[in-house]
Amino acid sequence: MTILQTIDWPDVIAGALVAAIVGAIGFGLRLLIQFHLARRSILRYGQGTWYSAEYDPKGNVPRDRRVTYLKVSMTPTLLGRVKVRSIEQLNPEDKAVETGWIAEGRIQNGVLIGEWRTTVKGTDRFGAAMLRFLDNGRAVGYWIGVRGFDPPLYGYWIMSREFDDLRAIVNGAVPPGSFEAVDVARRVADFERGTRGSRV
């Protein structure tokens, strides 16, 4: 008699099926709980449509045109995260390069911490972002990103539930042309060459 003949195959198969079913139910419940928590967290700050402004130096545009306005949506994901997705670029006439992205992360203590990637075909831009939600239907933070193998850049990220409010914030708090980002890669290169760093 071989070892295989001594195995009670109906019990083994039944046990494996029960384990698979219990595992699938557990996994499904975990997804539901994560989705519920993510949904609850963004309902607190505002699920749905927002308006976004970001410092955007793409395309070598003049300093006074380095802001991109986007209409975005904020939704929970099945994996318990929060997704912010650009829907429409609102000032394409001011920009030399199209902008579109998806940011996904988690909200912790009123702060969205996550990663973003471009949705523009034929481009390779990605990075990280942090956004603090305020009590007045606004959110402020920063993005950092890279294009292909280029050094990282960074800029401000502001969101509001109202587009007119967002434009007023940008024009009053960080008027286009006033935001200064330090080109860290150039400063490091200049340091290596023994020269002084410069700004973007």
Folded structure, characterized:
- The model has no long low-confidence stretch (mean pLDDT 85).
- The longest helix has 37 residues, at 9-45.
- The protein is elongated, with a radius of gyration of 24 Å.
- It is 31% helix and 34% strand.
- It is of the alpha+beta class.
| Unreliable parts | none
Helix content: 25-40%
Overall pLDDT level = 85
Strand content: 25-35%
Overall geometric form: elongated
Tally of helical runs: 4
Helical/strand content category: alpha+beta
Q: Roughly how many Å is the radius of gyration? A: 24 Å
Strand order of the largest sheet: 1-2-3-4-5-6-7-8
Q: Please give the number of β-strands.
A: 8
Distance N to C terminus = 79 Å
Biggest beta sheet summary = 8 strands, antiparallel, barrel
The H-and-E topology, N to C, reads as HHEEEEEEEEHH
Short description:
The protein has 200 residues and is of the alpha+beta class. It contains 4 helices and 8 strands; from the N terminus they run ααββββββββαα.
